[in-house]
Protein 1
Amino acid sequence: MFEPSKKCIFAKISIDFELMERKIFPELIKWKDREGRKPLLLLGVRQVGKTWLMKTLGQRCFDNVAYINCDAEPLAADLFSDYDIDRMLFSIQTITGVKPVAGKTLIILDELQQVKRGLHSLKYFCENAPQYHVVAAGSLLGITLGQGESFPVGKVDMLHVHPMDFEEFLQANAPQLLDVLQKGDWKMVGIFADKFVDQLRQYYFVGGMPEVVADFVNHHDQSRVRQLQQNILNAYRDDISKHTTTMESMRIGQVLDSLPSQLAKENKKFIYGVIRKGARAKDFELAIQWLVDAGIVCRVHRVKEIKMPIKFYEDLSAFKLFLCDCGLLGCMAGASPKQMLVGNNVFTEFKGAFTEANVMQQLVAAGLTPYYWSNDSTPAKIDFVVQDDRGVFPIEVKAEENVRAKSMAAYISSHPEAQLHGLRFSMKGYEQQSWMTNVPLYAISRLYPSSTVPWRCE
């Protein structure tokens, strides 16, 4: 039994982040207080909230903050000309006007990938000045590492920051509903099902990029949501053009442009021919890897068997490709507010593409690595497969209340030795069966619960 444990003009928009809370914040506090702590590296796609997290940690938990944006600060180019810790600390004080004091100052090195030797300098903070709290981030650190930048192996702590999950969205937009959901009383949850579904529609439209969520909570303006989302997509494309050759940029753009069409197929396996006629894997493998390394897309590989450890059965030749955020997917696809916010169209259009993208987003936010299963000789498929410390679980995703899960039922019954228990995410209420648990689409995160209440340092 499974127990739940158009090119838009860039615009400046004033956004109030005061209501924002992130589940990852307690991990930052644990890092701050950990014995043997190393410099912390935050990884994640651009605009996912890394800078906000670092500054909020400094404001809540330290006496002062020495913040340097290595992309915007000209003097940062010479900050790591050598690895003399005393000189680096003095330079940080000169640039920021804040004298770093061990245990009382948070040193923030933002966009660290923009300066030479910046990433490698963390090794020397770890070895020669471990008493200082140093946290670093960058929008394209994954790309930097993929290009062979010297990485301080074993000398840094790392955390991955993902777009906000549905519970974090509720915390900002409808906290009273989050209270109901977190109590775990499924009968009470069912009473408020219509309200949860309405919030889920809004989440599909807004997504989980913190800037967009904060603006939506403050203004509930659909045009502002789409403007901010388009700005983020434009920023991604700007990164692509700045950091790749013309040919690479073109191919990366083609992969990105193909995503809505890829996900609107009945079988969402990535097909190179959808990019352009005659396209071959060898022409686009590097383009896909660039997008994965940048965090813009998530690649979900197929597995040949649903067994532990699931990694042993991974098929690297077949995969699905999802945009990192369901709201950005809707913006890229040109889905109108009416189409997404009225009725059940958002759940059923595009062959459930938004629903499957949402499920992927919730699983990744929970720290899981999702896979999928399909049969080479039959149309049978299982939308996702995940493994955690409780075992390996096949997952069927249903965008409606029509919940016949024939492929999953057939697989589980034909593999009794695996003792599998399935999960079905659908619009039906919570239901426990001997072979499968049905969980409402708005309650996926209840399987991997963690609090979203405001966190403060003692």
Protein 2
Amino acid sequence: MNTSEFFNAFGTEGSILALDIGSGTQDVLLAVPGVAPENWPRFVLPTPALRVAGQIRELTRQLTPIWLHGSNMGGGFAGAVEEHLKRGLRIAATPQAASALHDDIARVRAMGITITEEEPPQCPTGYAPVFLSDFPPGYWSRLLESAGLPVPSLIVAAAQDHGVHSDTGNREGRFRLWKRLLAEGDGDPSAWLYTAVPSECTRLAALQCAIGGGPVADTGTAAVLGALATPEVAERSDREGVLVVNVGNSHTTAFLVFRRRVLGIYEHHTGMLSTESLLKDLNEFRLGWLPDEQVRAAGGHGCVFRELPPEAEGFRPAFILGPRRELMRGHGAFIAPYGDMMLAGCHGLLHALMSRKEK
């Protein structure tokens, strides 16, 4: 990446903050003008939902009622909420905060949580406020300032969003979003970086608002873009089809890529996969033989294909990334864009920004 060309394309001399918010970590990269990408400041920190879970558990220890407010975010703190309620302790939440636990507010009420439209002081006295957001206000500005780093002129972020689907479950609904993306356009994943978020994606909409309106994407999109930000992968895909596998903490997502375009998508839950079961799925997926129904029957989200050209030659080369990539050791090449696998999604977001500016 030519950093001068990169920042010139945006007409800015300011830095760009890229965040890839997963279920275990949030991986963050600050792209700074005039600095080689290998030297850009980076952070691998617990995901915001885990910080919220820690706050809730401390309040549970203190036997303190909780008021959840803020916005939709990753639901990785749900276990701490359940522990609090099992102790007989009270929880209240605004509808926006409650959506982080479930899109159906009635189901949140059924957990024993009071839904309140009003903020304190109308909320019951003695409740400790817990703010929900994938991008807490002031957090990154304080951290960057304390490290002597510049305030970014643009923020771009990724998070996984199942979306709100009134006619089906979240698992099938989420994969319907992937199917729609693959059916529309030419399979260019840089187009899946949203400036206008789909109406179903309420978590991404909340994240976009929190970061000041910058582009947002799903973490799966960020992963395949991170692979394509690696010249070895992009150039290999120009000659033959390649398989990109992101083995995340919660989800495993695989992409069939030919000439830098996505022709197939597979998604499953990492915790439900063994090396053997994943390889079996991927071997059939490469050839376009894997039925969507088979993946869903095994607890996964599904798979979908565009027409697979014979020139792709079975998508034999596999490029693997993600924090649980050991599941695939020995069955493909581990990749690390600009020397850091955990920052692949961040580099992917920047790659998409650059690709869209060039068009």
Protein 3
Amino acid sequence: MKLRTKITPIAATLLMLSTSHSVFAEDDFKLSDKLSVTGFIDMSWTYADSDGSSSEQSAGVDQFEIDFLYDFDDKLTAQVDLEYQDNGTGEEVDIEQAFINYAVGDGFNLKAGRFLSYSGWETEEPTGLFQFSGTGYAKFFYGGYQQGISGNYSGDGFGVALSIVNSLGDLEGEARDSESPAIETMVAFMPTESITVKGFYSIDKLDGTDEDIELINIWASYGEGPLTLAVEYNTAENSAFLGSEADGYLVMGNYAFDSFGLTLRYHAYEVEDATGMTVEDMSGITISPSVTISDNLLMVFEYRMDTDDVSDIDSDFIAVEALVTF
């Protein structure tokens, strides 16, 4: 996640108290007429093998999240997301999001605080993914957890958004203060109930330079009955380091068979340095069946094959995930 804020004693107490409740159905669990709670527990077993030369496996709780949703009235709401995560370098307990939202009226909303960027087809949370793993290219093309203010307008078949934040953040939680604010813009079109197209342009200042980080993210989805299709294209300058240029895309499809589902995805991305030399060139194919065990438990299975054209190494990845929502 982005800029991390350590949990205060009060927030830690709320987290401890909230975990004493049983798992409920998908709807928010209401603590009162104004306060409700939702969240998830994400557990997995994974195995990775690189060209037969090395392999590793792991098992455990990847992430636990509890979200507090408060309705002050019909216009003002607030949300605080508390998260435990094992990010591969250690365990962390953090405030992931904390923001207020005010419905100005006529489809216009204002949001202020710490919140996740609107950009990107693949979500940051496992509850929004169609498979176990993300592509891995979000760090180059998506905005992260940001701190600032955002305005969003939704009309009949279209929407626009503008966020002014201290920085675009990143997917490791390191937002920062800057001499000039970062800006993220969005334009969305929904010509039918089945089709959505969104485009994002984001700009930020690269630390210690006069150069700008520029991100462009465009995705389109089609959802009708059990079928979901999506395509995404990304391009960026200076997002990896000074002088870098990056491009990436994905194509995916998901089909649901009653309680079963199947996702197929292909993605690729490339990063070049200032001289035009390719420093990263990755692609991957993902096959991911899933089965709904109950209203609160989803099992996800994944096989993924990645190809690194720079090092000429192929990797195989297998995962079994248990995702409990409440």
Protein 4
Amino acid sequence: MKLLRVTAEGLPLFKGKLDLVFYAKQRIEEEHKEVLYPLFSNVYLNSANGFIGINASGKTSVLKVILLVLEMINNEPINHIETRDILGNEKEVKLNTYFFSGKANEICRLETIITSKQSKTEGISYSIVSESMWTKNIDEIATRKAMLDFGGREPVMIRSGREEFLSDDVSIMIARNKKTKEHVHIVNLLKYTNMNVLPFSEDIPSEVITFLDPTIESLHFDEKDKKPLIHLKFKGKEEILLNNPVELNNYLSSGTVKGMITFTLAREVLQSGGYIVVDEVENHFNKEIVTTLVRFFMDSKLNKNGGTLIFSTHYPELLDEYERNDGIFITRNRNGITVENLSNILKRNDIKKSDAYQSGFLEGTTPTYEAYMQLKKSIVATLA
């Protein structure tokens, strides 16, 4: 399954309707096909989707919505999804998920309405109050513009509330996925934004280690008396034995540890054609490491299975890695979070994106002058 579009209404932190499009909306030139993943006909996906904005602009909140949708269509109960807190305690949140089913060669639209309930003992819990699904075969699709138009069609599945074995927080997707045998490989790295501890008990690929720190000769995991044992050896040094992954932070930089996590899991996603979601991708990384990760997903010869990287960043320079504008989203928070695709603002792909971002041309992408002056005056006052 591949996400094509997600809309959400009723989310408490957002201003109006959230609308995210993951397929290539702009005209597709022949040279652009090298950085896109082909679905069918003239429909391509952006395999690296970047969300950029100033601090507190809502980047993490948007990633939480995407992860919620991915987990939900992957049969996960809403009350077990880590990012469910993005729903707040709203009485009605409406999600529309448009996706491509490779097994059935169909475009699907899933409408899910979620409500919350709060109790003193269990806190907030969520349930699905109504749900419907529409489908259309890709042979029926003449244009990209009409691809997601399901007007005049009857739903092929409707949640009746009488499903005997269906929990009220599990999507009807569970029945469809069982029939089509579809599953999405999802890697959620949000919890590693500011914390770097290797979660693995298996060896890190040697190529990953050498790329991140060429002074490391080997790093592998073992067991002794049913307890983990970590073997770390630097070139020309004696082997170091550790009992806890946390101890690695005494010997390796934060960037090396985060890189081992990110690139090892990215390899799996590239192989499976799944999704990896990274918040503040530049944390602990230098620019070259970040751009390498993005380029891997943009390389159609390497990314043959359509693995998708979804990330947030503060790095305007990263935008210049994109030949197109429709894989970039600008987040702003003005009495509520909004998200705008860069292709709606910049119609031309040849304008340097980092300059447009840093100049303030895109609006809301740089701290306000008034805030800058207030901060400057307060510092001057403390020095007086």
